[in-house]
Amino acid sequence: MSPEATEVSISCHCAAARQPVVLRFPDSNANSRSLGIDLCHCSTCRHNSGMLYTSYAPIQAPPSLTNLVEYTEGGPAEPRRFFCDTCGSHVFRHERSSSGEKGDNGSWAVATGVITGPAGPRADNEEEEPPLLRIARHVNTASTRDGGLSPFIPIDSAEGRSAYEHSSPGEEGTENFKNDDALQAHCHCKGIRFYITRPDSSSTLPHSGFPDLTVPYATASQDAISNPRDEKWWLCPHGDPNPTKYLAGTCACRSCRLTSGFEIQSWAFVPRSNIFFLPSSSSPSSTSPGDDAIPLDFNTLEHNGVNLKSYASSPGVLRDFCPRCGATVFWHDRWRPDLIDVSAGLLNAPEGARAEGWLEWWCERVSFMEDAANGRVGAAAGWEMKLVSDLAEGLRREKNKGLKVVTQDSSF
Questions:
Q1: For a tag site, which of 70, 75, 262, 287 has the least CB within 10 Å?
Q2: What is the structure's pLDDT at 127?
Q3: Is the whole-model pTM more than 0.85?
Q4: Which domain holds residue 349?
Q5: Closest C-alpha to 54, from 166, 176, 138, 154
Q6: Are 339 and 206 in contact (CB under 8 A)?
């Protein structure tokens, strides 16, 4: 993929946003065959998406905004984000022009995870190409307090710019309430607000096979995956009779990418009995579940005033997102209804975005990394494979440098 051939195809999971868009290569990037992008780790991006970072590639104005919901981050001068009304995938970001010049319509960008490959006839070109995108910088890492995923993803800054930009002008302040017994979580618009509590006796009741994160489905036997010894793998430290944390990890599967709009989804595995919603009437400054807290029951959430939209990404599998701001919230299925995947980007831990006071991160692999390029072709597939490979290597490299992690040495 070169600056002379910049039209690419994009699609969300349900395909409602499918269309061609044209990438914009800045003048400083004109001689490169890969477009440099930033990974943004700011609080706004995390709570707006549910991811630990977001990434967008600059484009010309898109042909269509049909089937997309528009969400403005703040006032009328703030950026607008567009996500799919059906599957929740983030698709576009638009920054209004500050020049005031006639005809200046601001700048558009596309969420990198929805790029599927070259548009038109080039989709059939099997010639090996360099990755479509490359990571130029990590930006707005200061608000994470712990770096989020930035320590594990190397940059490739051909332009010679600083690898990190810590300033975040205009970013909203992040509320961080210290409460050792409850961890606050919310989407950007705060239409979705809930709490996670520490593991208790109810946390051991669910039964679940092992996730691909810990037992690779591509190589493991069905018996091994089924968890015949009924290990409570989601509770940490593993083997501790009094666990205080939950397992968390990263996923690169096609479904996560196309329902979020971004390549890397970070999940925390939490029993449903440890998740409580706040009613819409509760104070925004409330710091712990009270008598009016609503236990998570997907059948009664709407009745209790919680507006959460669901999308079936495959039979029996539901993904939930905020219908106002588009943040990915939960993954759950009919086979393990009492164990929920929670989007880690929504967590509001005072110690940092990785919430290490509550989570232990699996660093042996990225879940479904073998599936990373599924649904992508050419340079778009090359970009994803490199990103996921670099992340997996970075996690393994950093696991002995103070990160609260779980490894294969843990008792499974």
A1: 75
A2: 58
A3: yes
A4: 182-406
A5: 138
A6: yes
